[in-house]
Design a protein that fits this description.
- By secondary structure, the protein is mainly beta.
- It has three helices and 15 strands.
- The protein has helices at residues 3-10, 54-61, 157-166; strands at 30-38, 44-46, 49-50, 64-67, 70-74, 79-84, 89-101, 104-111, 116-118, 125-128, 142-148, 151-155, 168-172, 175-182, 185-192.
- A six-stranded mixed beta sheet has the order 3-2-1-6-5-4.
Length: 193
């Protein structure tokens, strides 16, 4: 599979002005795996070399599909497997919109590929142990945010620490939780026992 051919198939399917392609409605035949990796730090690599063009990464990010624990890039006619070390997205920026909703302020996050996610529902954020730390019994769960279509983003370490500074400490018994309020919903960013 050649990335140039794949890119040609996607021509006209996605832009900032249009909504994302209907990837969930596309069910083409599997064409094999390609040597494309989304690294733990959010960078994209093809054949071991970083993909430097942000517009190309954004295009491919718009057609990621997850089935079970596997990730694919899909067009209406092809589906190719890719490697994702943790999540396809990494949250690199955030802003707090004051009074942006009837329920108070709302946190708005941006990924390394330019996807924007408003934190509005309880099911959008969950604490998980990163895959590289699962074997460590001392590993601390960190926040993951649902970007779209069962695709999640991990918070970049700097972003996570910045949010913790915004959080309120709530202690109950021997557990202290760090919480933020977004769109009237309380979200746990971490906890200490």
């Amino acid at each position: 599979m050649d990335l140039t051919r794949f890119q040609q198939q996607l021509k006209g399917t996605s832009s900032k002005a249009r909504p994302l392609p209907p990837v969930d409605q596309w069910n083409p035949d599997f064409c094999g795996d390609i040597n494309l990796t989304i690294a733990l730090d959010g960078r994209w690599f093809y054949e071991g070399s970083p993909i430097g063009r942000a517009s190309l990464v954004q295009l491919f990010a718009s057609v990621i599909k997850r089935e079970g624990d596997k990730y694919f890039l899909v067009t209406p006619v092809e589906k190719v497997g890719i490697t994702v070390e943790d999540t396809p997205f990494l949250i690199t920026q955030w802003v707090k919109e004051e009074g942006g909703s009837k329920d108070g302020s709302t946190y708005v996050f941006t990924t390394q590929t330019g996807d924007v996610v408003r934190l509005e529902r309880a099911d959008q954020l969950e604490l998980r142990v990163p895959p590289k730390a699962i074997q460590d019994p001392e590993a601390t769960p960190i926040p993951y945010l649902c970007v779209r279509r069962n695709l999640w983003a991990r918070l970049h370490q700097n972003t996570y620490y910045q949010l913790l500074e915004q959080a309120k400490e709530v202690t109950s018994g021997s557990c202290t939780q760090f919480k933020i309020q977004s769109n009237g919903t309380s979200f746990v960013l971490g906890e200490i026992t």
